[in-house]
Structures are given as C-alpha cells and as structure tokens.
C-alpha cells in the first residue's frame, strides 16, 4: 500500500528553497501570492489539512480550531512567538503545536541593538536630513543634531531568554551596563559573563534605567507588562526599545508619555495592533522622537530559511512517529 503524503497547508509564501523541499516531502499546499488568509480560509485549511503551517499573521483561535477536521494533528508554526495560536485549545484537541526557536536569536538581537543605537544617536533623522529636498544639511556643525551617548548608560532587559542574552552580549561590547528582569534568575556563570545585574522587582529596575529593551514573549502574564503605571516609573531621559511583541507595552500610554515629553524616545519594531500603527506614533516618528520599523527583527534570508528548515524537521519528525523537537508545552505559556 502506498502511504499518502501528509497534506500540509502553508498560509504564507515562504523562501523558495523551503517551499521546494516541502513539495518534495509533503503534499504541500502553498500560498504563492502571499495574500494573508482570512478567517474563512483558515477554517477551510484546518478542516482539510493534516498539518497547518501558519505564521504570526494568522489568528488560530478557538473558533477556528473548533472547526478542525479529524486529520489535523500538528500546527507547525513558522514563527518563534505563538501568541497568534490558542495553544491551550489546540492541545486540548490533541493537536501538537511547534515553533521555530533559536534560529532568529542573533538577527533579532542585531535589530534590537540597531534600535538601541538609532534612537539616542538620531540615525533615522540624520539619514533623512542628507536626502531631504530642502537644504536641511549645510555641513558639520558643533551643535547640530546632537544625540545622547550610549556608552556607560544602563540597559534594562526585560526577558533574559536566548534573545535577551544575545542583546546583552552585544550591548556589553558597546559599553552599556547590563541589568535585567526575568521570571528566573540566570545561573551565576552567565550573569558574570554578561556582567549583568538581576532585579526581581521590575518596578525598581525601571526607575533606574536609561534604556529599556523588551525581549520577553507575549503571554497572558506579559500583556501590558509595561503598563501606564510602570511607564511612569521611567526617567524622562529614558528610551524604550521593543522588538518582541507590541502587546507587552500599553502603546497608548507610551504614546501619551512621549507626546508629553516624559520619555526621551522609543524604537519600535512591533505594534500592539499590528499591522496598524497608531497615527500619533507616526507623527512622533516624523518629529524624530521615535524610530518605527515594520517587524524586521528576523528579516534575513538566512533566518527565514532556517525557520523553514525547523518547520520541515518538526513536521517530518512528527510524521515519522516521533516527538518533534520544538513542541510548545503548556509550561512555556
Ligand atoms: C517570530 O517569529 O515570532 C518573530 O516575531 C518574527 O520576526
């Protein structure tokens, strides 16, 4: 008897090499136009597929999952974060969920560092001034476009997992003093290597930092972790950088504080209602108070191919009857 290949529905366009390998291994239904699927299309996908490969732009909630067909046994997400999936519902239905951890650590840490530099050193404004139509740049001047030095400043990292630690390694080399808040304290050896100071009280850490970087996942426990109250604890000269998930910061409160001059600036690669961006943030970006990026943290060809490879390994291992390496477990949520 010929075993049929599993029907793998992929919701977005993936790098060519990943799609080709998927076609070789599976009965892969690809989305060559890259048009995001609406909820009806997602429902159709979960009804028919053996494996669903969603990305962070697909909302796989309990309503979608309630329509899942009997064949759907695996959701192999092309993403590190899994906040777009109701994982508890999936697990209750006996559907395994996997993600792609580890392979986007360095790229995301690079982008975090880029924002840590970009906002205090006014990179976006400077780049714009050079190419502006009007004569905005008249040559070097002792007092024009002064930013703030980052060497010697205190960086508070919220979430000291793989990405947080990769940010800390980079930031240490730039002369920043590393502080962090995490659910669990790091082993002493890692703390010593990073010269990192642990704060079990996030409130106490925030009040003392010059730059705060969000590097934790979005879970029910971290939703609005930087709430209006906590944002008020920051010094008016402080900067906030977020390459994790928009939902971790109360974006309206952040915007109000930036408008009121109660914070020096922010660098945001993610937004609370992505892809929608608060028009007030766009106004602040035009005034040079914030740098906004379109969720580019993991956007390297190498990173995206590695993510695809992980998805394939997870599917193949699962289909061969083994535990896939990147299972999302309830304890991680
Ligand atoms: C992820 O995979 O969760 C990242 O946010 C993509 O950049």
Automatic annotation (TrEMBL):
Q: Which Pfam families has this protein been placed in? A: 2-Hacid_dh, 2-Hacid_dh_C
Q: Which UniProt keywords apply?
A: NAD, Oxidoreductase
Q: Where is the D-isomer specific 2-hydroxyacid dehydrogenase catalytic domain?
A: 17-328
Q: Which InterPro entries match?
A: D-isomer_2-hydroxyacid_DH, D-isomer_2_OHA_DH_cat_dom, D-isomer_DH_CS1, D-isomer_DH_NAD-bd, NAD(P)-bd_dom_sf
A GO molecular function held by the record: NAD binding
Keyword Electron transport included in the entry's annotation: no
Query: What name goes with this protein?
Result: Glyoxylate reductase
Species for this entry: Xanthobacter autotrophicus (strain ATCC BAA-1158 / Py2)
